[in-house]
Design goal:
480 residues; Spore Coat Polysaccharide Biosynthesis Protein SpsA, Chain A; globular; alpha/beta
């Protein structure tokens, strides 16, 4: 590997380094202190509730405790070290990796950008043979190429269990793919751009596990910095809201994968799986599983005895560009995961874990609303509830900041641009100030899901964001 690839790989693994852990702990301690000082300065001990409504609001402060399990798991994830690539055995040269991109086919520009992103990164880091599969509901005008296999799902195609939307397209791809049983698939969304560190991580993951009868399903970290390069304010602010997703990846998701399990589900992209394992489990999840087919698939895989693993490296996606899209995206997750917890083929412990997580997610919503409401009311809070809220709020702020730190470092490295000091300060400051608003948006999504459950499959709008002049040239749409 080149020095550049080594640099990207080890940047991607910095979440397992001692310096990163120390900075994260220091940030958490500082956040706890700042929250306590701010609370004492603004409200002191607070005033007692004067009405029945205020008494009810005061009781809502105990909902903060719902976030404690997530905090504990994320803290434990800090104790997990990162595997060194030199420890992995050599990769079998016969291995072929298929990058499978699933889309409705309405955003051809984004699709073409992802196809060219895969080609660029594989040209820079040719660690294994590859092909690109594009699966769409509508025909797309991508230039024919030897490494590209286009699959258009026929209008009359139906699965035995009547799977819908993305799950339906994935089932069609399983049937029509040119992959052999021992080939690997890397699932991508239409705007997923792999990094060279992801290619190294994929090669390492396959080399470690390929000799197993049922190799584990792998997943790695997803970053969202692409809107930081643009001039539009709203997408940039909503990208800050998605910094928690990166923090979640290196927290509870990384923890569960390193335990070999995925009771809280998996993401729908950056999934690394051997073809025979995917065929064995199947993706015909039915109507109940089609909202969050990835989580249903994870439950079915666990039930079949398949384990999970963490893939080092990262790929880059995009955050929602509109507030309505942000809320609808979270609503789909909420409603879909509840269906998974209720109906997916799964062992009792996994179903209970997922259901418990969803209950805590809903309860944490109450805590988020209380936090904002009490900023105005200034009610007194029981010391235990107050300190619980401080710890949880400070840790979530720490995860937001850790996610932003990883995204900024990747942005600077991927584009060879030096992110100016004022830009970094502005992003960090905006994140700290807007975090309560982000919590309210997450809460609004849950309330929306309860009041009006998702009945379709909302696909949010994502434009093809360029990362700079050099990458824009490399990632021009196919056939241009």
């Amino acid at each position: 590997m080149t020095a550049s690839v080594h640099r990207q790989y080890f940047h991607a693994c910095r979440y397992g380094s001692v310096p990163f852990r120390l900075v994260t702990v220091a940030t958490f301690v500082a956040a706890v202190a700042a929250v306590r000082v701010l609370n004492d300065w603004c409200w002191g001990a607070g005033r007692p509730p004067a009405t029945g409504t205020e008494h009810l609001i005061q009781w809502a402060s105990w909902a903060w405790a719902a976030s404690l399990p997530t905090v504990v798991v994320s803290v434990l994830a800090l104790c997990i070290s990162t595997d060194a690539p030199d420890d992995a055995p050599p990769l079998d040269p016969s291995v072929v990796v298929a990058f499978r991109i699933v889309s409705r086919g309405r955003n051809v520009e984004a699709l073409a950008g992802t196809v060219d992103a895969v080609r660029r990164v594989m040209d820079e880091t040719p660690l294994f043979r590859y092909r690109i599969e594009v699966v769409t509901d509508e025909a797309v005008a991508l230039a024919p190429a030897g490494d590209l296999h286009l699959m258009v799902v026929p209008d009359d195609y139906a699965t035995p269990h009547r799977s819908r939307w993305k799950a339906r397209a994935l089932c069609y791809a399983v049937e029509r793919s040119r992959n052999d049983a021992k080939d690997y698939i890397v699932h991508l969304d239409e705007e997923s751009w792999p990094s060279t560190s992801a290619v190294v991580g994929i090669a390492e993951f396959i080399a470690r596990n390929n000799n197993r009868f049922l190799p584990p399903i792998g997943q790695g970290m997803i970053l969202y910095y692409r809107h930081f390069t643009g001039r539009r304010l709203l997408p940039k602010l909503l990208t800050l809201a998605d910094m928690l997703r990166t923090g979640d990846d290196i927290g509870r998701f990384r923890f569960q994968y390193r335990m070999g399990k995925a009771p809280m589900g998996i993401h729908g992209s950056f999934i690394v799986i051997r073809n025979d394992v995917e065929q064995r489990i199947g993706l015909d999840v039915g109507a109940d599983g089609s909202l969050t087919e990835d989580a249903w698939f994870a439950m079915a895989a666990q039930s079949a005895g398949v384990e999970f693993g963490w893939v080092n490296g990262y790929l880059v996606e995009q955050a929602p560009e509109h507030v309505v899209d942000f809320v609808k995206q979270r609503r789909r997750w909420w409603n879909g995961l509840f269906r998974v917890a209720l109906f997916a083929p799964s062992k009792a412990w996994a179903r209970t874990t997922l259901f418990g997580f969803l209950v805590l997610w809903g309860a944490a919503m109450v805590g988020s609303v209380y936090t904002v409401v009490n900023l105005l009311l200034g009610l007194s809070t029981h010391p235990v509830a107050s300190w619980t809220g401080t710890v949880c709020f400070a840790w979530y702020l720490t995860m937001y900041l850790a996610g932003l730190r990883l995204n900024l470092a990747a942005w600077r490295q991927d584009t060879d641009d030096e992110v100016s000091r004022w830009h970094r300060v502005a992003l960090y400051s905006a994140l700290v100030v807007l975090m309560p608003l982000f919590g309210l948006l997450e809460a609004a999504a849950v309330m929306y899901g309860m009041a009006r459950p998702e009945r379709g499959f909302t696909v949010i709008t994502k434009s093809n964001v360029e990362l700079g002049p050099e990458l824009a040239l490399d990632l021009a749409p196919a056939g241009a």
